[in-house]
Predict the 3D structure of the following.
Amino acid sequence: MPSKEHWENVYASKPATAVSWYQPHAALSVDMIQRIGLGLDAAVIDIGGGASTLVDDLAGCGYGDLTVLDLSGEALAIARRRLGSRGAAVRWLEADVTAAALPTARFDIWHDRAVFHFLTDEADRRAYVRQVMRAVKPGGHVIVATFSPDGPAECSGLPVVRYDADTLHGEFGPAFQLVGHEDEAHTTPAGRIQHFVYCHCIKPH
């Protein structure tokens, strides 16, 4: 797992709107979450959400049970300042997802855009999946987005693992039902195109 110091330096050294993964609106993520159809009381956790605008978009849609986890306290502080009073209702967790003390069977929806592909060590990936098994309700939904095979080989100076839908699903195992997948051509603030794949699985009962 990339070090906490690395990510604190990233967010301390450049605006959150300048990092390559920045999105003014997390349109595809919101669409996939809404299509699940669980309603606005669904418990949603955004892994590596940090300074992401997904929490703004979901709060704006009326979702009221939101948790954001990130390794970087600086990233979380950026989002809290941006949300202002709306951020008081959000749970903010500064932690490593592979080791965090997450509650058992707490979340209806687990969302991760661009954390899992940084887990280049198999032991970290297994720890991540164990956290999903612990924290997501039986039959809950897991949305994970990574760079696709034609995406970058590294990000923020760090190596990544690229996936297609089948290999990403395979990291979670056949017990997880693959509901669907979406491709995204993300335009970075610098104008480059990065290709992502989003997989939507259901955790076994």
